[in-house]
Amino acid sequence: MGKKAYWLFLAMVLTLGLLAACNGAEEDVEGEPDDEDPDVEDEEAEGDDGEDGEDGEVAGEPQEGGEIIIGQTGDPNNFHSAYMADTQSTDVADMIHASLLRNNDEMEMEPDIAADMPEVSDDGLTYTIELQDDVYFHDGEQVTADDVVFTYEVFLDEDYTGPRTTQFEYVDSIEATEELEVTIELTEPDAALEASALGFEIMPEHILGDVAADEQEEHDFSTSDEVVGAGPYEMTEWDYGTSITLDAHEDYHNEGPYLDTLTLRIAEDENAVLAMLQAGEVDHANIRPQDVETAEAIDGVNVVAQDGYNYNYIGWNHDRPPFDDPDVRTAMTMAIDREAIIDGVLQGHAEPAHFPHHPMSWAHTDEVDEVPYDPDGAIELLEEAGFEQNDEGQMEWEGEPFSFELLTNQESHARVDWVVVVQEMLADIGIDVQTDTMEFGAYLDRIQTPNYDFDAIAGAWALSVYPDPEPLFHSDQYEQGQNNIRYDSEEFDELAEDNRAIVDEDERTEAVQDAYAQVAEDQAYTFMYYPDVHQAHIDEIQNFQMSPESDYYRVEEWWLEE
Amino acid sequence: MTTYIIRRILMTIPILIGISIISFGIMQFAPGEPTALDLDPNISPEDREEQLDEMGLNDPIPVQYVRWAGNILQGELGTSFITNRDVGSMIWERLPNTLVLMISSTIMTMIVAIPIGIISAMRQYSARDYVFTFASFIGVSIPNFWLGLMLIIFLSVQLSLFPVGGVGTLGGDFDILDRLHHLFLPALVLATADMAQMTRYTRTSMLEVKNQDYIRTARAKGFKERRVVYKHGLRNALMPLITMFGLLLPTFIGGSVVVEQIFTWPGIGHLFLESTFQRDYPVIMALTMFGAGLVVVGNLIADILYAIVDPRIEY
């Protein structure tokens, strides 16, 4: 009998495994961080603002009241600013919490609970921030400098085990110099401080003050509807796996909130959200590119498209010749018709990419030569690099027909589709490509330290609003960082190194732009495209806005037309 | 009987230990780590390493296993790496949903499958039998994710007869009719394949019994056909089915992974899937052991019921 039970159990595990594998394709990987993430699906980061969007503009004075239901995939996990790491959490936290500074629709920082932008001393080492005097937490307590100091001290606490210490590596001390004034002293100038550290959500000291830093992550405050913030909405109920209810915070310090109640309806995947939208059960949802047509066909629903703040790429393993040769990588790019992939696989919902950051960002420059689609030129370039075309049209490298493996993760439908198109395009110039797809965790294990077991990978990066080229491309970042393709360029290292320490804004912009341009020139990656992202909402929602920063950008300023 | 049950229960202990060791090992050997999914270049490798340390994932696997087993024996399921919530309460709040789904689909299965199986058997090779046979082959063959999606598209989206998903209408108070309304489609989809299978088993079982001497004797005694079939036939035919139900119990968790996913049913199956992708080890282990427990208990129940139904069986 024991044997029988054991075999049954094994059979069950196998069945479950199979089921999970079948289903995996439908499932977006959870636990995604808010910044750069290779599993960014096309719907992951949100597009632009609503100002120049296609959306119906403000039709009159905002009206207060009303309720909308938002379709969301997956539960958030944590609302503590020092411990959040996935987009589900940060998107919801954005509604609940307020921070010193926030992003505006041009991806620049603007004051949120701060009265003004920080005053920075000439040496770039002292930041003084005044707070607004009318900011209140949901429970009525005023937000003071003490709350700010309390929040930041969690990051600096030696018991802190969360993922965010780099943002604070140059912070020496933080002090409440007045009731509503905070002073931060740095050990070295840090240009990224405003955009990174000052964007963290302020936690209430009167609730968490007595909890040790390493216990706050598991505190009910962080993991349940007991969360309290100073943001536009207050969480009144969180029914795990089902819904989250948020009510308007009447004492909110900025514009809004107009809608009385937001209900987040938690669905298991995008298919379920789409069906709910079709059935009229939700009023707002993210839409994947392949579902845009379906969503547009729904009566009374408006689909808004914006540039996504992320890009897809092919990363060549520079440790494996001939991909160490920039000319070979450039030739690969020349052989890939990105426009055709955008039209064929993405139904035109993307822009071709030529640069490691987004055109919207200050880090972007047009001063790079775009690599054109030119298969004949690609063959020529390969021949110059030592390839030879044999009688059967195959490209030979060191006397053997050249062949490599292009690997990607199975969760992104678009990528799984386009790697096959790339395979065909490279076959046209005589290069044999094998494609392989793996589950995300297994894929990461294979491509990262210490394995680096790949010829080329198809991936995506969500982009940060405070771009720092170092972590991805600096040669130091190979053993322990994210430069798993082993891009190794002295020019780049010199340009990018210590860019955060440059106090002068223009100077830093130039350094970052030049560093990125170097990456583009060397074709460390083949940059594929910036996908569009889409959101659908019912026509009655007015002043709808979109931003890469959050799925529910400025939701407090949306309102319902009666 | 009592000694048999006690012996059986004691035997489950080494089984569960063995299962836990194997699954703990398999889980650890699977590529990927809980922190690997936080692929933010702004999270430094040192921070990541520290998080692994804090989770205890840098210790040797046997050490981790012993620590885990120690906690389990004290009733501590641990804290999820991803949600930082107590694993016990994460499972506990989802368990009722899965149980409701399992139980209702089992009831549906029995209500449909047993009568149809009997009719099929009693009227073997009749037109009705062929129709049922045909239908049950369709039922077995339809993948339940496909059936679920089709039902959602036609009945929910186009005809608006049923909700698209969820356990109940949001914001409303508990309303049994509303709950049943939400429950119907997922339970039906989950039941479809089982119905088809159980119909076949009932039919086969009934056929065997039909030609037994005691049925002929009962008929010869002049009992009504009804009494012959239900009292003498069915009771004996059901015996193998009881074992079947016992063995079906754990498969409900497997089946519910797909159905819960499609119908946005916040149950155990979805939690299992999610935690696997996130490498949320404490949750995976808790659910695996839960599944293993179900297999063992399912077997035990089947054996005990068997003894009750068939007085000839003695232990």
From TrEMBL, chain A:
One GO CC term on file: periplasmic space
Domain of life where this protein originates: Bacteria
Keywords: Signal, Transport
Molecular function via GO: peptide transmembrane transporter activity
Region described as Disordered: 25-62
Compositionally biased region (Acidic residues): 25-58
N-terminal signal peptide: 1-20
Family per similarity comment: Belongs to the bacterial solute-binding protein 5 family.
Protein known as: Peptide/nickel transport system substrate-binding protein
Organism of this sequence: Natribacillus halophilus
UniProtKB/TrEMBL annotation, chain B:
Cellular component GO terms, alphabetical: plasma membrane
Keyword flag Acyltransferase: no
Chief localisation class: membrane
Domain (ABC transmembrane type-1) ranges: 95-302
SUPFAM superfamilies (UniProt xref): MetI-like (SSF161098)
Compartment(s): Cell membrane
UniProt keyword list: Cell membrane, Membrane, Transmembrane, Transmembrane helix, Transport
Membrane topology: Multi-pass membrane protein
Source organism, top-level taxon: Bacteria
Transmembrane segments: 9-30, 99-119, 131-159, 179-196, 237-263, 283-309
GO biological process assignments: transmembrane transport
Family to which this protein belongs: Belongs to the binding-protein-dependent transport system permease family.
Protein's recorded name: Peptide/nickel transport system permease protein
